[in-house]
Amino acid sequence: MPTYNFDKIIDRTHTSCIKYDARSKIFGTEDVTPLWVADMDFEVAPEIAEAIGKRAQHHVYGYTMRCPEYYATTQKWLKRRYNWEVAENEISYSPGVVSAIVMSMLAFTKPGDKVIVQSPVYFPFFSSIENNGRRILNNTLVPENGSYKMDFEHLERSIDHNTRMMFLCNPHNPVGRSWTKDELTKLASIAEKNNIMVVSDEIHADILFSGHTHTPFASVSAYAKENTITCMAPSKTFNLAGLSTSIVVIQNSKILRTYNQMLDNYHIGLTNPFGLEALKAAYQKGDVWLEALLVYLEGNRDYVYSFINENIKGVEAYLPESTFLMWLDFRKLGLSDREVQKRLVDDAGIGLSGGAMFGEGGSGFQRLNFGCPRSVLENTMERLADTFK
Ligand SMILES: Cc1ncc(COP(=O)(O)O)c(C=O)c1O
């Protein structure tokens, strides 16, 4: 088995990457260890770098279409990783997962319609809905024993005749749940009863820790298969977020036609040549690198989780089942969000994502990205403890 050096510190500054180069804008100072936006500080798998390098050597970077290999490679990945059978003609595309979510909403809802979200959740869900004149129906997640569960009873009670769609985050950012088949099946039955279309954001599907498997929402029932738009990507898994290449799976031909029409309407149906090569290399040759990454990330997760829960009394870490993001509860300290943020930046020199932006249930929390070398976390944790103990 090849070895990969996830401990390597890579200087990402001056590459226009937002994690480092936007620190002044976000935190008011360059002097923070950035554990915020959700990309990782690791080099990509060598096979991906090689494929991109080879394509770059060609020196003509014109308009690019998706070759049959894009579809076949994706089909095999879905089957291999999630045991999910998807036909070639059920696979579409989007530059980004969020753009796929927005296009789906614009295509299948009208202004004034309600879209269900489960906060605290990835914040562009809110802006996507509100900026486009739709309304949010929030089915807040319920914290329980250091984890979260869905509130099905509230969901059933709240859905009304204006509720048309749900944005599901599966696995869930920021609370780190990898929803079980039972939970998703229950959700699918509520969607079916109320004729709700589900846009399932499964961008974190591959980052899974011991004992957890990913269940595509569309695979849990016949209704879900026919009424789900699944958004996936190699971007989180293989650290390719800048390459704007995502996958959309739609197993209902009418919905797929309408979605593809949206791609045409916005003229964004072509593909980034480097993203295409990266996707193919990742899905064809990236399994071994991914397995090594998951071992490393799980070590990071366990280290941060134990360190915080054992050493910092006022802060509680939640153990993520998926994602390289950890949800931290600062509420016991009795400080305002602003004060926590100020101490994190000014005293600890750490840039996290403030929980309040993840909506109801997020105030009092911070989200920490542990997709970085362990030594960075060790250093950061000492400063966190000094600041908050
Ligand atoms: C749940 C979730 N969806 C979507 C995205 C972003 O996807 P994209 O950059 O492809 O729009 C992120 C990034 O953090 C995310 O966590």
Characterise this structure.
The chain has 389 residues and is of the alpha/beta class. It folds into two domains: 18-45 and 287-388, Aspartate Aminotransferase, domain 1 (Alpha-Beta Complex); 58-285, Type I PLP-dependent aspartate aminotransferase-like (Major domain) (Aspartate Aminotransferase, domain 2), CATH 3.40.640.10. The chain has 14 helices and 15 strands. It has helices at residues 18-21, 23-27, 46-56, 68-82, 97-108, 124-130, 152-158, 181-193, 222-226, 253-265, 273-285, 287-311, 337-348, 374-388; strands at 33-34, 91-94, 114-117, 135-138, 142-144, 147-149, 163-169, 197-201, 228-232, 246-250, 316-317, 325-329, 350-351, 353-354, 365-369. The strands form four sheets. A seven-stranded mixed beta sheet has the order 2-10-9-8-7-3-4, with helices on both faces. Strand 5 and strand 6 (147-149) form a beta hairpin. Helix 3 runs antiparallel to helix 11 and helix 12 (287-311) runs parallel beside helix 14. It is globular, with a radius of gyration of 21 Å. The relative contact order is 0.17. The model has no long low-confidence stretch (mean pLDDT 97). Bound molecules: pyridoxal-5'-phosphate (PLP). Residues 38, 96-98, 122, 169, 173, 201, 203, 233, 235, 241, 246 line the site of pyridoxal-5'-phosphate.
